[in-house]
């Protein structure tokens, strides 16, 4: 698969409508593995890294899950292409900085990506839409089992899987979910939630920026510890906390609808107005406004079939995606103009917010019965 | 306030996390926060950062050797990067790492997935124990026919064990 094809199609995790997709954008599980008796990538010389790459890459490419993969050496990708992959969460920022001796292999659906010689020899990651941590783990666990039959992984009876950084030793697993929490941010409850979650050994942070300054009201929650707990237990613990956050978010949205409707409709109306008429827009402004429109869709103020257009804009208005699609290098000012132009075009047929729809059926969650409210 | 990592620029990014009741604080300058990937949701954990700052001292206190005999990685390298050189570093710096792992994780021993290879050699070594015990009994009881058969089986198992290593 070529980079062009990759650009043209959206990852399945973005298109899918997983469970709790109103609050949970995506779920990811990553496993870190290393070869026994080989220096970790950060310490290995170029020749050894290349050797390790040659050992691992063909084994990954022959996996049944990797038919017709997108497989590239990092040195063969331009800086812009790497940045596009980062914006799609397919590779880490650290991996984008690598060149000789590193590679990325991913499946066509962009749901499984394997980084070779990132911080560890192997970083395998599975992404699903909505809250599906267990399913994401299942896939990456299967891939790990298939690979360990052909590769000798560094494993210690006491410490488990050995990783370059001691924070990952044991399971080598990092499970995370991306959450959209406009309700908690608008009602200024978000810091309370973040502190409560941090106290129980999980990490929450803004996807872009920290705390209340999180752009697009997007947050990431993940496990902090990897040793002394089974994979299953880690995921259960995360699921429980995420379900509580979903409840809190839905409650916050209902309180806004019932107690502060004017503020809410004002925010949604302004977001709609700016997105459809503005001629210059920074990445930060775009993310924040798109988040409010997304909330509007969740509440019923915009039709459900407009969801995909908004979700795609979250990714496609990022700097590298903009430059890749115009095929030219843009300065910040040009990017802001071009970003506004793309958004205006996409939202041409986007209907005005219809508040009456919300008042009649304030759908509380994706799964429960809509509450009747006079 | 100076940056905790480079200790020369003014800190611009202030991070606090409470992990299992322990407060962790880090102050970073613009450059170091970028370099440490603080903006990167996939890579960043505060514990990671702290590693580069306080962890190396822990390892020194632990009195472990200063250099990994397999890969040549040193304590000073760990101090600089917060990463280890190879899987054998876990043995070389074992004692110091232990207290670090204790502070960082839920437990000090892995209880999760077992690779099939490890599972298999675990089963094989269990079988080996039984066979050796039976052999000892057979010899004691002067049951030489059984003992010979057991010796053959043990030999076979031994070669399997070395293969699975
Ligand atoms: Zn600094
Ligand atoms: Zn070493």
Described by strand count, sense and barrel closure, the largest sheet of chain B is: 2 strands, antiparallel
Tell me the strand percentage band of chain B: 5-15%
Shape, per Cα inertia axes of chain B = rod-shaped
* Helix content estimate of chain B: 40-55%
Low-confidence stretches of chain A: 360-374
Gyration radius of chain A, to the nearest Å? Answer: 21 Å
Structural summary, described in words:
- The complex is a heterodimer of chains A (374) and B (165).
- Chain A is α+β, with helices and mostly antiparallel strands and 374 residues long.
- Chain A is built from 15 helices and 10 strands.
- In chain A, 46% of the residues lie in helices and 14% in strands.
- Helix content of chain B is 55%, strand content 8%.
- Chain B has 7 helices and 2 strands.
- In chain B, strands 1-2 form a two-stranded antiparallel ribbon.
- Residues 39-47 of chain B have low confidence and may be disordered.
- The interface between A and B is large, with 63 and 50 residues.
- Bound molecules: zinc ion (ZN) (2 copies).
- One zinc ion is lined by residues 3, 5-6, 9, 28-29, 31-32 of chain B.
- One zinc ion (ZN) binds next to helix 1 of chain B.
Short descriptors:
heterodimer, A: 374 residues, alpha+beta, eight-stranded antiparallel beta sheet, 46% helix, 14% strand, disordered C terminus, B: 165 residues, mainly alpha, two-stranded antiparallel sheet, 7 helices, 8% strand
Spell out the blueprint of helices and strands.
The complex is a heterodimer of chains A (374) and B (165).
Chain A (H helix, E strand, L loop, with lengths): L2 H6 L3 H4 L8 E10 L12 H16 L8 E4 L5 H9 L5 H4 L6 E4 L5 E5 L5 E8 L3 H16 L6 E2 L3 E2 L11 E8 L1 H5 L3 H10 L2 E5 L11 E6 L7 H29 L1 H17 L5 H17 L7 H10 L2 H8 L5 H15 L8 H6 L14
Antiparallel strand pairs in A: 1-5, 1-8, 2-3, 3-4, 4-5, 6-7, 8-10, 9-10
Chain B lengths: L12 E7 L2 E7 L1 H6 L10 H16 L13 H7 L7 H4 L1 H11 L11 H25 L3 H21 L1
The complex binds zinc ion (2 copies).
The site of one zinc ion has 8 residues of chain B, from helix 1.
